[in-house]
Design goal:
By secondary structure, the protein is of the alpha/beta class. Helix content is 40%, strand content 18%. The radius of gyration is 14 Å and the shape is globular.
């Protein structure tokens, strides 16, 4: 039996697994809070791109969404995105960036980023992007 989609209640993303690669504690806390309000509780948080690649490998790609900072230690966001696209070409990828300049946007688009949010971001901005990506 399927549940009705629109009864005035926000749909939930319970069960969705997210890999959050963010080295700034406040941005990570905000992102986790937004995801939690959406029903997403399965969040693996790492603080650099190298850890993100290891987490992705350890989970055998079992994430429905990756949220990654652009500027991270060891492996930056664009290099992480490149690796994700090689291993999991259809995985949803949301880039967080403190800079929305043309070169960054073009580089991310070249590697098929699904969406990006400019930091600092509001909870509403992140929620809207995640909802659009997850198309529920």
């Amino acid at each position: 039996m399927t549940e009705p989609k629109d009864q005035g209640l926000a749909p939930t993303l319970r069960g969705v697994r997210v890999l959050l690669a963010e080295d700034e504690p406040m941005a990570a806390k905000l992102a986790r809070g937004v995801l939690r309000t959406m029903g997403i509780t399965e969040v693996t948080h790492v603080t650099d791109g190298s850890q993100a690649l290891k987490a992705l490998d350890a989970a055998d790609g079992a994430f429905e969404l990756i949220i990654s900072d652009w500027n991270m230690p060891k492996v930056n966001g664009i290099d992480f995105l490149r690796q994700v696209r090689l291993m999991h070409p259809n995985m949803k990828f949301l880039m967080l960036t403190g800079h929305a300049d043309r070169d960054i946007v073009l580089a991310a688009k070249q590697h098929r980023v699904d969406a990006y949010v400019v930091k600092p971001f509001s909870p509403g901005q992140l929620k809207a992007k995640v909802e659009t990506l997850m198309k529920f």
